[in-house]
């Protein structure tokens, strides 16, 4: 994101104003010609001219034809510096907000990429291990509870094969047709991709 850059002549105007505030340049004093100011601050004569124009527009100095630049007001120089500082603070805060938003946008894009990668990896795992069990906890209000696997005909109704039931802290592996599914049980089963949806529909 592009940064806000302050014009060189505006920075030179601030430096001259600071000299006035610090009483290095006194009110009523005649400053050197613009070409000398340019050499003093290490800038071109055009940059010095623009800086003096800024200060002149604000009533801080007054160019005097043939005799340099006269300092008019220390108070206005201080006001100019204060206003510039406030403007710079606002710009800095604005830039920080933009940087944070850009960072959040980058993080969001990275998260989307990671989620896409996770999806692809999950699909690959399912393809390589089609018998990985699904995990499902039936709704406690289901009328299918308190009944045995055999009576429910789960495989015939859903295409899912129950391979384990977690009842409280007991894991029952390879439960037979007489195993009963109770409220709060976790049912582990294998089957096709649509078997989870079929189990949910069956128990609901």
UniProtKB/TrEMBL annotation:
Residue ranges occupied by any RCK C-terminal domain in the UniProt entry: 120-204
InterPro entries in the cross-refs: Bact_HTH_transcr_reg, RCK_C, RCK_C_sf, Tscrpt_reg_HTH_GntR, WH-like_DNA-bd_sf, WH_DNA-bd_sf
Q: Which organism is it from?
A: Convivina praedatoris
What does the UniProt keyword field contain? Coiled coil, DNA-binding, Transcription, Transcription regulation
Q: Give start and end of each HTH gntR-type domain.
A: 6-74
Q: Name one Pfam family in it.
A: TrkA_C
- Which SMART domains does the UniProt record give? HTH_GNTR (SM00345)
Q: What is this protein called?
A: GntR family transcriptional regulator
Which parts form a coiled-coil structure per UniProt?
Answer: 94-128
Domain of life, per UniProt, equals: Bacteria
């Amino acid at each position: 994101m592009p940064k806000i850059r302050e014009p060189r002549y505006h920075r030179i105007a601030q430096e001259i104003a600071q000299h006035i505030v610090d009483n290095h340049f006194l009110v009523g004093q005649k400053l050197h010609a613009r070409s000398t100011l340019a050499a003093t601050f290490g800038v071109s004569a055009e940059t010095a001219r623009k800086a003096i124009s800024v200060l002149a527009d604000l009533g801080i100095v007054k160019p005097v034809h043939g005799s340099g630049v006269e300092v008019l007001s220390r108070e206005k120089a201080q006001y100019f510096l204060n206003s510039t500082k406030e403007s710079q603070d606002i710009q800095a805060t604005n830039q920080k907000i933009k940087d944070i938003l850009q960072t959040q946008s980058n993080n969001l894009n990275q998260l989307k990429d990671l989620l896409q990668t996770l999806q692809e990896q999950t699909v690959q795992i399912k393809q390589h291990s089609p018998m990985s069990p699904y995990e499902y906890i039936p709704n406690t209000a289901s009328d299918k509870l308190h009944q045995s696997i055999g009576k429910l005909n789960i495989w015939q109704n859903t295409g899912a094969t129950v391979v384990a039931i977690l009842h409280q802290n007991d894991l029952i592996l390879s439960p037979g047709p007489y195993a009963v599914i109770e409220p709060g049980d976790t049912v582990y089963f294998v089957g096709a991709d649509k078997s989870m949806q079929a189990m949910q529909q069956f128990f609901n």
